[in-house]
Design a protein that fits this description.
Length: about 130
Amino acid sequence: MPEITRRRALTAAAAVAATATAAVALTAPAAPAAPAAGHHDPAAPDSFDEVYKGRRIQGRPADGTEHHHEHGGGYAVFIDGVRLHVMRNADGSWISVVSHYDPVPTPRAAARAAVDELQGAPLLPFPAN
């Protein structure tokens, strides 16, 4: 029986690693394609503009000029014209800087939760880094 040399052990380890990498690449789901410019992403939340408990809340796809750190998946939410910092979680839920520990299903729900939490207090602008 031939002895296992360092070269044979390293060659075998490399072959196992290459096989495992190929298997992962073949079984991993493909990333969804980004929507083409000018096309609506069906998974993107709808725009809204309403008065909730006396406060004007608005939400719309961000155009990129409003904030340079887009954690909200390119979506902007406003309360009385002041930007509410929102973020989309990996599970699709939304949180805001005001109600950070209470995830909700939509940006509209995040705006409403922030209004509830503010209890009439004005929303102060969130400083950008």
